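Reviewer 2 asked us to include a model.

Predict the structure of this chain.
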Amino acid sequence: QVQLVESGGGLVQPGGSLRLPCAASGMFFSGAAISWYRQAPGKEREWVAQITSMPTTAYADSVKGRFTVSRDNAKNTVYLQMDSLKAEDTAVYYCNTNWGGIYWGQGTQVTVSS
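Predicted model (structure tokens):
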């Protein structure tokens, strides 16, 4: 059974940084693309970034230049490094894969506030 588990969220001041791991199990991790999404209160879930198996990366315009997605296949983990955080980055962050189905983690809360 595929499982995705996010962690690393918390409260950070504007301009600060956080790194979110997404640990995967029950899947052929090195062959899978993993995406990050986020959902702010009262808003729809939006795509943030993706890393493929190659790996190649892609980012939403709102985070390009501030966020970096990477993967460690030995640890079955994808990371979202978030720098220069803004208040509008406040959201629950989810990782996702469509490998053999559609799977989501439980999410981790990121709050950017002074």
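Residues 68 and 81 are 5 Å apart (CA to CA). The mean pLDDT is 97. We have added this to the supplementary material.
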